[in-house]
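Before the break, one more example. Copy the sequence into your notebook; we will annotate it together after we see the structure.
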Amino acid sequence: MMLTRAILKQRLDSVVESSVNRVGVDVNAASKYILTYVSGIGPQIAENIVAYRKTNGDFTARKELNKVPKLGTKAFEQSAGFLRIANGENPLDNSAVHPELYSLVKKMAKDAKCSLNELIGNEALVGDLDIKNYITKEVGELTLNDLIKELVKPSRDPRKIARVFEFDKRLRSIADVEQGMEIVGIVNNVTNFGAFVDIGIKESGLIHISNLVDSYVSNPADIVSVHQHVQAKVISIDVDRKRIGLKLI
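Here is what the structure looks like once it is written out:
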């Protein structure tokens, strides 16, 4: 089923919004485009944030967002926890802790007989706190558990570390390819007779269907897919015909 442009945009918007609201954004570095995906921030407010930043310099505290035109109380309540300020006046401004809970965290620090900076990120100090002492009508145990997790690992990024891919630096042209070499590549096409692999030069290598695995293969797509990172061995090379034969390893 072909997806229309509108559906594709809707799905992209959903993914970006989810990511932004899980990870948070640096309010002093985020573009107008990214800011529009923060909960409570529409295009006009996003534009006003960028304009305020250009006129007044970087934000130094979350409370300063209240000075942004059209960013009212409701928008602040919805967005503040997702807008981060690094090296600001309050260390909690660079965390997912909402300003409504700042006074509670300060009380925790006082009970632990330490400063906010000493409490944040200190698993031992935070672990010694008894959350039952901080339960109120407004703040329940679930909220406190989330708060404790954030204090232990402030500004944690839930995304997995991306694996960096690099082509073989020995290869700059087909003349550098030698039989017997073991190289890495990215599958850029899968056909009924094998898979073509980008190995970082103009010519792609071909892994014939018979060289994908040692057993019988009826469909190469059962073994590899487009964009897959693979490791292969050069089994043949024809410089004149610009053909490189590979075997998946």
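The chain has a mean pLDDT of 88. Residues 81 and 97 are 6 Å apart (CA to CA). Try to locate both features in your own notes.
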